[in-house]
Amino acid sequence: MEERKEEMEKKMEERKREMQEQEKRIKTRMGKIKYKLVILSGKGGVGKSTVTANLALALASKGYKVGVLDADIHGPSIPKILGVRGQQLTTGALPVGIFPAKGPLDIKVISMDFLIPNDETSVIWRGPMKSMAIRQFLADVAWGDLDFLLVDLPPGTGDEPLTIMQMIPAIDGVLMITAPSDVSGIVVKRAVGFTRELHVPLVGIIENYSGFVCPKCGAEFDILGIGGGQKISEQLGVPFLGKIPIDQRICEDSDRGKLFVIERAETPAAKAFMRVVDKVEEYLKQRGE
To answer: Is the pTM of this model over 0.85?
Structure first.
């Protein structure tokens, strides 16, 4: 009995040392990245991953070095949207680690999608396994020197968001994605409370699916409601970063891995993405002063 107790204590000490070493690697890796931004929604179905991918493209188009961490373990979609599905990740002995996939405009991408053998395979993990995977993405991926790392989180305020918020040192801010509806707004309010409780700065709220602009006549139709994001922003005292209108070509381009915000730069939606990036730049400039 005593031998078993000593063995358990020894394993616990080893695990503690491993965790400490991992946290050191995370600090080193993240220290090479100028700005760390987290994209959160609280609610599913608001187009968070599509917004993340297009913001990454918008930033990269302005000459920034950008990485995207797809932290949605069960439903990773960033590789599909950025057209990098099927790439094989390569590794080198630590401290080099795992090399991220290379996407358009040299965007670096890491995602569980690269590690799943086929589309029929489910990731059936409980919280501790998901947290371990995210910790490894942070500690062992060779991001190198980046201007921006965008972290695309799954909906809600559970294991993945909590792990990211607690493990990334000095997060520069959270971008909160909502839809115009009141239902989405209720959940987003809780997500805002989550960031405040963890003392993570909130850059602002982005309202996605904000009206449909007819590509033929230019008329706008408020299909999913009006002004939900702006209303939440005013109620909670959070900056409003802008509205992204519905454009069927965003969905089409995402399915094909085409670069909507680059290739359709003259559309209202692409211009809206660029205006959001301008506001993010202004936020970071003011924060650094």
So the answer is: yes
